[in-house]
Predict the structure.
Amino acid sequence: MKKIRLFFISLFLSAAASAVAGPPTFEAQPSPTPADENHRELFDYELDYTGSSNFFDVNGNFGHGDSLYNDFSYAHRFLITGKWYFRAGVEYERFDFGGTDNGLPDHLQTVHALLALEYVVHDHAGAGIEIDPGPYFQNDIRGDTIDIPWKVFVTFPLKKDKIFGVIGVGGAINQSPVVAPGGGLIWLFTDHFRLEGVFPKPALVYNPSDNWEFRIFGNLFYESFRTDNVITPERKLQVHNAWVQYSEDRS
């Protein structure tokens, strides 16, 4: 079995009408009760379009194309004790590719569980452990399509109620490298506006109310998928039932 790595170097175009680089993520949540400052039901939908970009791997350039990314997730927080919660849900992600007829997959997708233990304050997770087990595949769900991405992180104050540091680490069974670091800073400008300068997904976040959240963000996206037959026209690449590590750098 051969593992290949594909890089999609992208000029990102937001799906929103705004001319600001990076897509907004819309998150609708019911208001918490007075006795509970943290939302229990979490819905999230993200739509990204990336155009006029090139496909690369270690064998060279495989042409250019566009990608359309859809991501929907739902999760529920279960109170354990104090500010500790268990979060459980499901997420569906899909990439659709168009452009050069290069023999590469025209789509990649996953439907996986969201399982996390989190310490939540004012609706934000200050520390947590999360796993996202499920099939990561092109067309067919089989036993060998299962992967288990994971992450662990903790937040600590640098300036009281204003600036926070974040350190973390994450990985997956079929990722290369298996483990990678992450982290950064969170700066609270106002009660409604903040900078989450945390890699791999830094963002400017605006909360007009308790029920809505808008994000302008970049993303260093890395995820592995089990593919079918991949045979490029010039036969630079010929693999069968391979894991493809797909990356997309958005800004």
